Amino acid sequence: MMAGSHCLSRACIRASVGASLAALRLATLDLLYLHNAAEVQLLARGKAGFMALLRSAFQELEALRQEGKVRGYGLASWECFRLPPTSPAHLSLGEVVRLAREVGGQQHGFLAVQLPVNAKMTEAFTQPWQQVVNTTATDAARRAAAAAAAAAVAAEAALRLKEPEDVNPEKISAAMDAGVALPPPPPPSPPPPPPAVISDNVTLLEAAKRLGVAVFASGPLMEGQLLQGLVGPLDHIMGLKDARSTALKLLQYARSVPGIASVLLGQKAQEHVEANVPLAAAPRLAPKMWELVSQEMTETLKHQQQQNALAV
Fold it and tell me: Which residue in 135, 30, 123 sits closest to 81, CA to CA?
């Protein structure tokens, strides 16, 4: 138990899944998130302690998958995937997926992550803070190293077959007849070390794409904060002209970020649900259009920030 309420023990996970299934009247959960696991547990336990705890949690989730109670699982986060690797609160998606493979094999159930993605919280698609193995480059380097090592062994073997010029066969024969021990041949050269794994520094969305993990965007309106001061300023962005309200413009922007599987939006008022749900049937912005909209959005937010600074 951490922070008085956050628990990732196997017993707690199993009990929580059972309670959720009963409350929802379902036999199976399609996707279960461990909520803010790194945000609550990582700094308190340290990297090694947290990964050990996560391994145990994944073992229970894989067992629940085998029982048919869970189809897949993931991590719902706030900042661990939005921080640079120099931060002690940073979490490597590659390491998490590698842990899932160790626990559940290649067909493991770690399917998704969730993190804030919106017009101001852009780290998921702008910052190359995730490191993933470049399989193609690593395999090519290993093949080249193996070929070089084989060539070196062959060359050394060929040299050993040649008789050195300073060796006198008659003297060797006489020494052997006299029982004089000959010096042993030199040992073969040690094999070269294997080449290091070649990794790329990429964004969270690119890392997720390479690792086969879906990314769900939370906080597309930044808990309503983006609506303050942006009502009106976004109307000039042509790519968002079809969205009738500022909220819809921001939702369309977030859901169109290349690589985002879906956007999660909490709504309490019925009129908000009725206004926002139809957007799900509308097409997302094409990648090139989204790039143009993103540039305009950045300029608009920058101008708005300058205006707010002048007002203060």
Answer: 123
pLDDT number for residue 202:
97
Q: How many CA atoms lie within 13 A of 29 on its CB side?
A: 25
Measure the CA dihedral 207/213/216/222, to 10°. -30
Distance CA 305, CA 65 (A): 47
Identity of residue 117: V
Q: Model confidence over 146-198: pLDDT tens digits?
A: 777 777 777 766 665 555 545 566 766 776 677 766 566 666 667 667 667 88
pLDDT value at 201 more than 70: yes
Distance, CA of 139 to CA of 144 (rounded, Å): 9
Neighbouring C-beta atoms of residue 93, cutoff 10 Å: 24
Strand partners, 307: none
What is the Cα–Cα distance from 254 to 256, expressed in whole angstroms?
5
Please give, one letter per residue, the 3-state secondary structure of the chain: CECCCECCCHHHHHHHHHHHHHHHCCCCECCEEEECHHHHHHHHHHHHHHHHHHHHHHHHHHHHHHCCCECCEEEECCCCCCCCCCCCCCCCHHHHHHHHHHHHCCCCCEEEEEEECCCCCCHHHHCCCEEEECHHHHHHHHHHHHHHHHHHHHHHHHHHHCCCCCCCHHHHHHHHHCCCCCCCCCCCCCCCCCCCCCEEEECHHHHHHHHCCEEEEECCCCCCHHHCCCCCHHHHCHHHCCCCCHHHHHHHHHHCCCCEEEECCCCCCHHHHHHHHHHHHCCCCCHHHHHHHHHHHHHHHHHHHHHHHHHC
Using an 8 Å Cβ cutoff, are 99 and 136 in contact? no
The answer to whether the CB of 180 falls within 8 A of the CB of 225 is: no
| 199-202 vs 130-133, strand pairing mode | antiparallel
